[in-house]
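Figure-free illustration: sequence to structure, shown twice.
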Amino acid sequence: MTKDVLLSISGLQFAAQDEEDVEPVEVITAGDYYKKNGKHYILYDEVMEGFDGNTRNIIKLTDDSLDITKKGVSNVHMVFEKNKKNVSYYNTPFGSLLIGIDAKSVDIAETEDNIDVKVKYNLEVNYEHLADCSIIMNIKSKESGEFTLS
């Protein structure tokens, strides 16, 4: 994997009542990649419309966990570990939310120039179940071409 990567993140939220009206939220951006002590790190900046500054995102991948840290306009440290519930405060310009992430699966597949990540989790806000969610990520070397979201 090269230092310069393209990152695609697609997320779905399934609310209990209206699962038919689900549209994914997808972000495609350039980022930086490095590997240290057996862990993959992807760094990229995110701009929020209507706010000055940006949010720095740090994604850390191990064999069985996904760790996302956001610093800037929004601040949060989210940890996705299979069959483990993690709680954190999500600080936004509109206020703080107590979120719970109960990961049901964390699947990471790696080749020389590509990393695929699939996470399924339950999302809670203030100890109330909000939605069943999934995240699909594809990280690849910039030179390698098309995305393969599946």
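We now fold a second protein in the same way, so the two outputs can be compared directly.
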Amino acid sequence: MLCVKAPVNREEIIKKSRFIGLIYPCISEIEAATYINTQRIEHPSANHIAFAYRIKTEQGTVCRFHDAGEPSGTAGKPIYSYIEGHDLINIVCIVVRYFGGVKLGAGGLTRAYGNAAKQAIKAADIIEFIELATLSIVLDYKQLQQFEYTLKKFSGKIISKDFAGQVKLLIQLPESQADELLQIFPGQIS
């Protein structure tokens, strides 16, 4: 699987209609909804704001698409087809349409929305998707510096720190590295 590294924005005019293709990396449906709502706020006079997303969760992969008032299957599904066809995960693709006065027909709409998604994906910085593990760790203060150094070598990051009697950390690192970290710091991870 692959994912996008950063947001992308591409625009084109098809028979006087303006199509804006946007891509955002996201890790939850809440984050995807935030991006979609942001576009509704930024484009209040747009005729249609169609979208599709594909997100990996602990319960499995969540896939959704929406036609936003266009004829059924002409907007959201073509966007989703390009996401799925490129094996992208943790992504939301939004296509904003300003109607230009010329009807495109079902086939034309399908091609236009699909092309907007295609152009945005083509312009995106696509990288390999790495499954992350989130772990809770308890360390003595004297272990913190060595742990931070080791975690960096495993391409991990600290999400939160709590300094009480001991140091409590919430970390993320590639899932494939978790077992090796457990061997270096046994009994510390929960």
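Summary for the second example: The first strand starts at residue 2 and ends at 4.
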